[in-house]
Write a structure and sequence with these properties.
It is a single chain. The protein is mainly beta and 116 residues long. It is 0% helix and 53% strand. The chain contains no helices and eleven strands. Strands 2, 4, 5, 6, 9, 10 and 11 form a seven-stranded mixed beta sheet that branches. 28% of the residues are buried. The model has no long low-confidence stretch (mean pLDDT 97).
Amino acid sequence: QVQLVESGGGLVQPGGSLRLSCAASGFTFSNYGIYWYRQAPGKERELVARVEPSGIVTYLVNSVKGRFTLSRDNAKNMAYLQMNSVKPEDTASYYCKVNLGGNAYWGPGTQVTVSS
């Protein structure tokens, strides 16, 4: 059973940092790219980043370039989204996703709120 679970969200002040984690199980994690999305209230879900199985980052949305970085630990079946210099507009629920066999599998999300 494919499962993704995000963690690490919370309340952070503008300019602060958070590290989100995505714990994966039920598939060969090291073979698949991992996507990070976010959805703010009243807005559509937005692709934020993608990390390849090798750990190479192949996509970062322009609004987070220079502030967010991705990594993964294939031995631990974990992916990470490091959020630095956060802004109020980064407030959203953050999700990780994997595409397997034509299906998309999502985690339940973790809420990030950037506010002073």
